[in-house]
Amino acid sequence: MTEIDTVSSNLRPDYDRVIQDIADYVLDYRITSDEAFDTARNCLMDTLGCGLLALRFPECTKLLGPIVDGTAVPNGARVPGTDFRLDPVKAAWDIGCCVRWLDYNDTWLAAEWGHPSDNLGAILAVTDYLSQKRVAHGEKPFTMRQVLDAMIRAHEIQGVMALLNSFNRVGLDHVLLVRVASTAVATMLKGGNREQVMAALSQAWVDGSALRTYRHAPNTGSRKSWAAGDATSRGVRLADITMRGEMGIPGALTARQWGFYDVLFSKTVVDQQLKPEAERQFRFPQSYGSYVMENILFKLSFPAEFHAQTACEAAVILHPHVKDRVDEIDRIIITTHESAIRIISKSGPLANPADRDHCLQYMTAVPLLFGDLQAEHYEDSFHHAHPEIDHLRDKMEVVEELGYSADYLDPAKRSIANALQVLFTDGTATEKVEVEYPVGHRRRREEGVPLLEEKFRANLATCFPPERCAEIFALCKDPKALETTPVNVFMDLFVI
User: Fold this and answer.
1) Of 186, 194, 268, nearest to 15 (Cα)?
2) pTM
């Protein structure tokens, strides 16, 4: 019996082209889009505000702080809204955990989904720590312009990779792309050269991926709220060990039998239209630029999984027509797109807040009944006090509209449409309310930015006195002043 020969030669390959392209982009591409920088500034406000709001929830705050109590870190990175000074790896974890906890930060929807502002954990932790260290040595700190630049790059890496490559269809979680993007920008911010950025990225791919188990019934749980923090933190750690001299793995993706493609990306459902030999590689419809930040989706009205945002808007519109006739409701028809059905449509008991904020029917029932949807509405105390929510869920029918599914994937539209209609026992019905683009969509920026600013002000007020809120808001509203502010000075404003 002979051994199977899995390697024809031991010649070390060049780095995989996917890795090279990311490295070249993060190091060499010059971002010139004013729209991208302006959107990044709004994204910074929104992301920080989401993190501050999460500090009201003990299930989040119990996970924060140093791993060893009392640890003192010289020039430690700060976690907004707290007095922590942590090593950059744990600071990235904490910032990322807060940002994602309430499912309220930005969203990217394509073949894969995700929340590119999750990468802010790595970006702020690294630049705050290094800025303080530089100042201590009489050197210039990072500026907030560099933070915005890094945000655009991280958004672009995560978002372009998601355009045609569906990790969820092979059971992998999108936080993999957070780790990859955070690794790239963290290594760049640490001064890594092309070889070092590629080496760090190869480590990110070799790490593999978390399973999506914790996002789906019947196992949905709170890990989905800290998984992105874990991923952005891992990016900082991989950047760190690479800058200490750790070698890379050039064929991390393409190595036969042992690489990412063969081990984790070979399931036939990746794309039914692809031939088998084409399934084991990523596809890219465009090169990296600033497209993702310019088209990012903001959650401005509801802390809800984004596929349900337009359903929530429709429910708020119908609330006045339903609130006094709840007992007369016969059926509720939700017309939606395929991704929403696959990811968040569920019946039966909902075990915890994370289960509820990933349930299309729950997120629609609450605003139908109460005219709004807030983070507190997912808590056990609220759910148990209002059994009528589950009564409405039991009357819901979820159907796919093929046109919605097509427009969801159309690069020229990127819609996230839902429609809602309530039918009563006497044979009457409400109008069918259709919302194609949520208020956080690029097509509704003029309407959305004032709401984003209002959301930021409200979230600031959960942590800081009025004078500090006004100071932070005024700085963030002034692009020139913000961009020239040293990162360590900016972070000073967020210390409790």
Assistant:
1) 194
2) 0.89
